[in-house]
Amino acid sequence: MENQEFADLLASLRLQGADHFTCEVKRAKGGMPVSLWESISAFANSAGGHLILGVDEKSGFTVVGVDDAAAMEAQVGAVCADMEPPVRADIRTVRFADKNVVVGFVPPLPRDQRPCHKRVLGPWAGSRIRVADGDRRLTDYEVSILLANRTVQHHDVKPVSAATVDDLDPEVVAGFLRRIRATKGPVFGRVDDQQALLMLNVLTRDGDRVVPTLAGLLVFGIYPQSFEPQLNVTVVVYPTGEPGTSGKFGERFLDNRSVDGSIPAMIAECIDILKRNMRRRSIVSGIYRVDEWEYPEEVIREALVNALVHRDHSSFARGMQVQVEMYPDRLSIRNAGGLFGPVEVGSLGTRSVTSSRNRTLLKILEDTPFSDGHMVCENRGTGIAQMLMALGSAGMEPPRFTDDVSTFTVEFPNHALLDEKTLHWMTSLGLPPLVRSQMTALALMRTGAVLTNKSYRTSTGVQDSRVATRELRELVDSGVVEQAGSRGSTTYRIAPGTPTLEEGQPGTTGRLTSNERRIWRALDDGPLPRADIEVATGLSVDIVKRGLQSLRRKGFVTLIGQQRSRDARWAK
């Protein structure tokens, strides 16, 4: 870390008033803190982060320095080496305010190498994870999840010993076999039904008996919850934005259901319940205005499929249901078990990666139809990209994904991203025709978002990074987006001076200051030079200058001519 980078980081810490998710500050004046290994483990098991030794958080992040920087560097390196697996941190000394500060960057470990833990304590006692500005011990379930992620999972092919073939729906199984024999080649036409189901892992041998696998029971079972009562879905509709807060009539819930059955049946019933509790609204799609549910049906279906298919089926998680929670401002779907394999939250929807802890379940469901004939899942790794595209077409904000190791949550905000105000704002910019992904990105940037190539793809459903680069470049060339950085660190945001039209439209004065309104009214009769505005308003030159620049940023006035020219005029 260079001095300027450290200065910027220190300034942000002072502004925030505390260390945070990716930064841990220690005074370390009397030597290396004994708990430093906890932060190293936590950063390695999370998103990585900086360790800063020689800064006192309690005194407003005063730089106090360390006594022996070289020895401190060596001690931090030794702690990193004592972790399992060893942590390869970048440890340096920064000279700042005539004092030495030791700064180390701990990179995140690949998912299949976690949990990073203190070797002498073992993974169960020696693993930590970063939560806000602190380090928390991983629970036994979280440790088991991370250890299990290092190997291929087989929970979905284990026998359900208490079940029999008669617990499967014969009609649905017959339809599945017909499709298999029509699409999977001649091998399944040469064997009987039982042998085919054994080959497809719908059935398995349990001693001298043939019984359903967990995957077979969940897909084709008449009532799988007879054997696994908690492998179902709960749907709760809340009247307010916070669970536990009653509605205006004292009601705790608007709807509260426990949904049982096979996976296809549960998905269909959940969608019906949510639609009964949803409103319809008008949205802009291209040049048309159409009525649509608050959440597009295909988006809900994909999210439910993901939750039910990718959830953890280990013994630790069999007691946790898939939880669907609808609030006035959002829809949340949560399942047991975080992401599996080489998938990270930031890459979801940006590339076609198929990585699942339930490979057999996925394989069966790609040949299992809903009642409308569409297969339950495609098993091609493009489902989230399709979800993002559907949300973009509906003019809605992209979902938020949260991986908490033990759970995975997708949350859909309940508001249109491309609403009337935003569309009017885009029109006012005088841009050439935009594609939907560019419109979505501009709408996000308008709310303060800073995008990268990856987050652009995640937010819009664009999968090709080259396409994303081209579309972002077009926005930069138009002058409304500012590019900063280079290569992998390039960011994009609304360019300074771009009108925002945050409230109302130009021509209204409800959100202007009193001085801005006086300047605005002075332009009723046509363009004026700044000197004439000063005379008309009686305001000082400095107040008029600030007022005109503010009105310009808000999109209420424009400058005709060059700013320093005597012929320059201000106009509405």
General description of the model:
Pfam families: HATPase_c_4, SLFN_AlbA_2. The radius of gyration is 29 Å and the shape is globular. The chain has four domains: 3-138, Schlafen, AAA domain (Methyltransferase, Cobalt-precorrin-4 Transmethylase, Domain 2, 2-Layer Sandwich), CATH 3.30.950; 150-414, Heat Shock Protein 90 (2-Layer Sandwich); 420-494, Winged helix-like DNA-binding domain superfamily/Winged helix DNA-binding domain (Arc Repressor Mutant, subunit A); 514-571, Winged helix-like DNA-binding domain superfamily/Winged helix DNA-binding domain (Arc Repressor Mutant, subunit A, Orthogonal Bundle), CATH 1.10.10. The longest helix has 14 residues, at 3-16. The chain contains 19 helices and 24 strands. It is 34% helix and 19% strand. 37% of the residues are buried. With 572 residues, it is α+β, with helices and mostly antiparallel strands. The strands form nine sheets. The chain has a six-stranded mixed beta sheet, with helices on one face. Residues 502-510 have low confidence and may be disordered. The protein starts with a helix and ends with a strand. A hairpin with a 2-residue loop joins strand 15 and strand 16.
